Amino acid sequence: MSQPSIASRGLDLVNEWYDKFESWLLTDKRSIYGASLARILAGCSVMGILITNFRVRNLMFGPGSVWSKPTQDGNDMYWPPRLIVSHMGNTTFLFYYLLVIFVAFLFVLGWHTRLVGILMLIGHVSIIERIPVLGDQGDNILRVGIFLILFMNTSEHWSLDARRRARTQPESMGGGAGGLVAAVKNAYNGHRVLPLWFTNGLHNVVLIALGWQLIMIYFSAGWFKAQGSLWYHGTALYYPLQLQEYKPFPFLTDAFTHVGVMVGLSTYVAMCVQIGFGFALLHPIARRVAIFCAIMFHLSIAVLMALPWFSLSMIAFDAIFVSTSTFILFDRWIRDKLRPVADLFFDLTDPLVDKLPGRAKQPSLVSSSAD
Amino acid sequence: MIVVIGVVFALHTALVTIWIQPPNPFRDAVGPKNVYSYINNDVFPFEQSWSVFAPTPRRGGENVKVRAYYGTPGESGTRVTEWFDITADEDKRIKFLVNPSRFHSATRRLGGNVNSTVSQFNEKQRLLVGGNLITSPRSKLAKLLKQANTKGLVGLANINQYIDNDDMLTRYGTMYANARWGHGVTAVEFQVGHRSVPNYTKRNTESFLDVPFTYYRIGIRKAMPGNSDAQAAFDGYVHKAPKTTKSSKSSKDGE
Domain residues for A247? Predict the structure, then answer.
């Protein structure tokens, strides 16, 4: 019997990889724990930004932001949402602002996540993009990241949608008006309406797009740094840390910059982790090291440079790179720790919730697969 | 269907990748204008840039001082306030705050923008910026700056950027001054300062905060007040000037 040719073996290998990729893409949703955490943390970022700016909301985004009129007028982008707040007075804007915070809170809770997510994104953009002159990259990654996760299933875990799915049964969707009503009911209750292969495929395709977006962010940020002599010489971090806007705790920053080795080490680690992040994801151990370094990097930025919401946004989307097994361990650990608090909470709220129409059934801890 | 979606997201991802990397042959191949128009589309832009603190990190700080005029600058009887350092006041508010509002950086941002544009002006253009603009529209200043432009399209873009920031600074300063010294401000005047972080080798002997600012003056600008809601927002934010403040007579600057 003759040995298969190299070309034949090559084709077999390609076919095998293709089958594996197709199976990965269509048979299940990947990284749903990460997507769920991304939803929670991205929603927290939106809430955090809005609450942080609550006192100066009129000066930043409302009628008082007219001081930045030239850049507001020159901003052709985001034209549909931007127009929402452009003619609001102080009082109307206050209610709108509070509404968007509330919608972001609902997104964090995972209440009708898809609809609420769209509303939150529109609300967030309509407010934040009123002040392009004070914009930063945190706004950009948050906007782009939230846009992408709207196409994903982010309510599979740690959400009210998951509880509702566990409490209700999907209705059979036949033809005609009855089928349409059933589809609407299923959509309302968070049950699957579209074919599984489609929702799996869409979730996973967007997961790849988001993952690649993050890898490219890290890579380009590191690549730009590698071109600078101060980064090359390991002293770059010292300079921005001296500026008052990035120095909320002077004693902490001074202690850090006092030791040259710390400055050099941090500068090189920041640059190397950013450039190597995407490559590190290819190996399980390197991936864990890279994610840990990235989280530490962003926590340092949050505290030392007073940029908590940018940092939280990056950590939120980095969550998609954490493995499901790690999340299951984390889920068990946090459930154990929080069980007394959760029990107390549900002891207080369940009697009230059960009185609501259609809430006679007890919630189950098991959530069904849905979108 | 999934293939179509996959192709759409693959194209999107490819364009974003080309956009956020440093200038590269792929961007040239696709056409920088094509990439730009996709990334910065009107409806939902994917605008982003990750050259933060790179290749050269920020090494300088800016601040903005303002003073206000009540009456016509140059005429007797016109009240002129003392200079007030808005940025320093904002810095006091953000100390020990791990989640400061970006609004505290507004004057620093505007001052930085003004600094970066003025640094590219020639001597004649700098003199124009230092001149007053009390009765003429800002378009006149723009016209004069353009007449003095020697740097072609780059120079024109720089002038447009300066004019926008001059306008924003004037609006901000007017409402700020109204809130601090009382309503009725007719003109405002600015000083924009810059200082650099001491070299790394001197980090344990020199403090950035001890480095003096180098100031230059932007001429007097006619006040640009906002509507009552806008002014109310500033009134609720800005600390009122102490009542003991003595005002001086008008400077003799003319337009």
Answer: 25-333
Tell me which long-range contacts A349-352 makes (C-beta under 8 A, separation of at least 24): none
Residue B65, SS3? strand
Enter the tokens of residue A359: 């809430």
Residue A358 lies in a domain: no
Q: A71 CA to chain B: closest CA distance, Å?
A: 7
pLDDT digits (tens, 9 = 90+) for B219-251: 999 999 999 999 999 999 999 998 764 455 544
Residue with tokens 């920053």: A253
Which tokens in the block code for residue A96? 């709108």
In a domain, A347, yes or no: no
Compute the nearest-CA separation of A363 from chain B (Å): 35
Distance between CA atoms of residues A268 and B198, nearest Å: 21
Give the three-state DSSP class for B69: strand
CB-closest option in B9, B50, B56 to A221:
B50
| Cα separation values, A329 from A41, A325, A335, A366, Å | 19, 6, 10, 17
Whether residue B102 and residue A134 make contact (CB cut-off 8 A), yes or no, is yes
- Looking at the predicted complex, does its ipTM rise above 0.85? yes
Q: Do A242 and B56 make contact, defined as CB atoms within 8 angstroms?
A: no
- The residue whose two tokens read 């390197």 is A286
Distance, in Å, from the CA atom of B5 to the CA atom of A180, rounded to the nearest integer, reads 25
Asked if residue A361 is part of any domain, the answer here is no
Judge if the upstream peptide bond of residue B55 is cis by omega within 30 degrees of 0: yes
Q: Which residues are paired to B248 by β-bridges? A: B80
Q: Are A158 and A40 a contacting pair, CB within 8 Å?
A: yes
**Is residue A189 in some structural domain?**
yes
Q: pLDDT tens, A59-89?
A: 999 999 999 999 988 776 666 677 788 888 8
Query: Does B2 contact A213 at a Cβ distance shorter than 8 Å?
Result: no
Tokens of B148: 């003095």
